[in-house]
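Notes from hallway chat w/ T.B., transcribed later so I don't forget. T.B. wanted the structure written out for a chain they're using in a teaching module, and asked if we could keep both sequence and structure tokens in one place. Agreed to drop them here.
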Amino acid sequence: MTALTVLVIVLLLLVPAPEPAAPQAAGGRPFVWQQDERWEALEASFLRARAAGCESLAPRVDAMLRDGRRLLATAASRRLEPESAVFDEIERATFELGPMVGACPGTIPEYIALITRTRSVVKQQSRRWDMGHPATRDRLYRLLYGGRAAVEEAMLQAPPGTVPALIRCEDEPSFTPSAEILGVRIHSGDILVSRGGAPTSALIARGNDYPGNFSHVALLHVDGRSGAASVVESHIERGAAVATLPEYLRDVKLRVMVLRLRADLPQLAADPALPHQAATAATHEAWGRHIPYDFSMDFSDHDKLFCSEVASAAFERFGITLWMGLSHISSPGLASWLAGFGVTHFETQEPSDLEYDPQLVVVAEWREPKTLLADHVDNAAVDAMLEGAERGDTLDYAWFLLPPARLAKLYSSALNAFGLVGPVPEGLSAAGALRTRRFIQTHALIRDRVLRLAQEFERSHGYVPPYWELAKLARRARSEIRSGGGL
């Protein structure tokens, strides 16, 4: 190879990557709580409850639990619209009870039962609601996500080993083959929604109009003869694949939720085996052809599949449309970041939003109490970064990193041609890989500082910082790192 040839190759590798086209963000609006004073009042309530002691609080806690159950009985007894004042009262009761439960961990099981019942009642009411209406989305989010957040704040204050990881919810009937996972009977066609431990998992969970808790979707298949259970899922690194349950669980899972189609859906009433047929077809397709990961997040084109699309495509062919309320990414800064990773569709199917689909019931949920704080810190770091994105922060990279990234991409493409996985995922550009690297590095800097600040907070205050305090710490960490030239 002549020196001139080498020079030409180097110059080609140095050609700047084209900037992603200006994204057309979805036409929604990001949900904002705007209740900082309320959160501070709840924290003050928690401190008063701790000072009072559980014995003196017991009568009040019992009365508030009874009041919550009464409100839910009222909500379940008649048809309600999303704007109903009863739901406002349920939300008030949920949040006001939380600080006292946090101060008295022995009451957490009853509180969890109340929140679980709340989700069941609200989802049943939502079967008649317009899932595309903002009032519907807001109500579901406030009560379902808000209830989970309130429970987790209480869990974080409990001594280690006092809160079970498993929460059993609704045992929806199913007539498909079954297996057991972590103590729960699951059925072929169930959907497993989980949260991974990577920084990009936190971005997927938080990066839409309704920031959530989940980042990954997998479809369960149970062989009718052998009883062997497996999952069909799509990974950024290798696209659609089939994994055994042990392999699925070996990947870091900070939380897992099992969703199941309602048995009374017309399609299932006509054919109870439909979920198993959908899971079987998805499994055969994943084994039968290479299906790359869909970075564009286009759920209507199934030549490529992102993780949510694995489930939606499987049921679509059997007449069931999941995500009755589509996810929206409306923040310009977030949309710009995602466009840099290859996303082109900002009205899509996000894992967290599947919980709100009224066609599905929640069968069970696992949270690992030991890793719950890490989960919250990851979220707070991402939330602070996304606030920065709205102010103009970019995921830039040094120009001299582009040539080696392009060589790594060429090497990865050669491996992909033989069905192997390379350092740059198939479908992700070299520039996209560098932006991903930048995101991960920035997140790590903020996360590590927030963890240290959270430990200092706990030492000085005597309790684990709640999420609104973590959000403040994350903003502080981001500001300090930026001012010190770390970003």
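Follow-up for T.B.: Residues 296 and 343 are 4 Å apart (CA to CA). Might be a good example for the class.
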